[in-house]
Design a protein that fits this description.
The chain is of the alpha+beta class. The protein has one domain: Umud Fragment, subunit A (Ribbon). The chain contains three helices and 16 strands. The protein has helices at residues 2-28, 132-135, 188-191, and strands at 30-34, 48-53, 79-83, 90-97, 102-106, 109-112, 115-116, 118-121, 140-146, 149-155, 165-169, 174-178, 194-195, 199-211, 217-218, 225-226. The strands form three sheets. Strands 1, 2, 3, 4, 12, 13, 14, 15 and 16 form a nine-stranded antiparallel beta sheet that branches. It has a four-stranded antiparallel beta sheet with strand order 7-6-5-11, with no helix packed on it. The longest helix is centred in the first third of the chain and has 27 residues, at 2-28.
Length: 228
């Protein structure tokens, strides 16, 4: 048996070492993620492959949530990949509330420390990139601006959703996350605040985007598109 193991190791050790290093790298340093849903439309589209900086919020012990370094402090507006505190599922949302913030949503309008966000028409072209579920549904896209926030967000007026909450004061070490597609996102309105230890990384760009409704043809205008 030992001889068989030695022979196996001799034949396959290069591949085993390579795969082990790759898994460690993807767990702790950098990774990519396939966007499965429209909860971040129009910023992220179904079929986007996004690049995730796993070390941005601190180097973690591979395959754990134990941090070895402090990393950068999360900032309002970051697009964050994290584990859901409800079920451990890996999600991607926008960081809205920092520790100490007093956050409220009133009829789809965001307030932080009682200061309302500014909303202006988005003005961009994106409908052709959306899937039919949202393209053929009444939707409104605006640019939301407040402090470190300056991004596109979408509402679906005819869809049941939590359009108001708070105010909620975010405690130390936790963060409030919302999807840019406000009326089709399971986020902090439903599962609560996210502890820092569950932040896996920051999404920085779309590497490639494959349209699931067009035979996975690439959306060429989204290739290497920056997100931050």
């Amino acid at each position: 048996m030992n001889q068989k193991l030695r022979h196996f190791w001799h034949e396959w050790r290069s591949l085993i070492v390579f795969l082990s290093l790759m898994f460690v790298f993807r767990s702790a340093v950098a990774d990519w993620m396939v966007v499965p849903s429209g909860s971040m439309n129009p910023t992220l589209m179904e079929g986007d492959r996004i690049f995730v900086e796993k070390m941005h919020y601190g180097l973690r012990l591979p395959f754990t949530t134990v941090r070895l370094t402090a990393g950068e402090e999360p900032r309002r507006g970051d697009i964050v990949v994290f584990e859901s505190p409800a079920n451990g599922k890996v999600l991607v949302k926008r960081l809205i509330g920092l520790p100490g913030d007093r956050v409220a949503l009133r009829d789809e309008r965001l307030y932080i420390d009682d200061v309302p966000a500014e909303y202006r028409p988005y003005g961009g072209a994106f409908e052709d990139e959306m899937v039919a579920e949202f393209r053929d549904t009444a939707h409104q896209v605006e640019r939301e601006r407040l402090g470190g926030l300056n991004h596109a967000m979408m509402v679906l007026p005819r869809r049941p959703a939590v359009r108001s909450f708070g105010p909620v004061t975010v405690p130390q070490g936790q963060y409030l996350m919302l999807g840019d597609n406000r009326d089709d996102s399971a986020d902090s309105r439903y599962f609560g605040l996210v502890p820092r230890r569950l932040l896996l990384g920051r999404a920085t760009r779309v590497v490639v985007s494959l349209n699931p409704e067009r035979y996975l043809l690439p959306r060429t205008d989204r290739t290497f598109a920056p997100l931050q």
